[in-house]
Write a structure and sequence with these properties.
GO terms for molecular function: oxidoreductase activity, acting on the CH-CH group of donors. Pfam families: HpaB. It comes from marine sediment metagenome. This is HpaB/PvcC/4-BUDH C-terminal domain-containing protein. The chain is about 90% helix and about 0% strand. By secondary structure, the chain is mostly helical. The two termini are about 25 Å apart. It has one domain.
Length: about 60
């Protein structure tokens, strides 16, 4: 049984750790696309990008 718990712990750790770089790329891409299209100042777009940043900060705090 300890082997199963160790595997589960390791799997959760690696799953959380690879999401950080992917999320950073997603935030950067979303911001770049919004700037390119000239909609980076639109309130609902800023809100969505802010939500992505909050999600990224939550991942980093884990």
């Amino acid at each position: 049984m300890p082997l199963v718990y160790n595997f589960a712990y390791l799997h959760r750790h690696t799953a959380a750790s690879y999401r950080i770089p992917i999320s950073e790329a997603l935030v950067g891409a979303a911001q770049a696309i919004a700037e390119y299209n000239g909609i980076d100042k639109v309130p609902h777009v800023r809100e969505k990008i802010t939500d992505l940043v909050i999600y990224l900060d939550t991942l980093k705090s884990m």
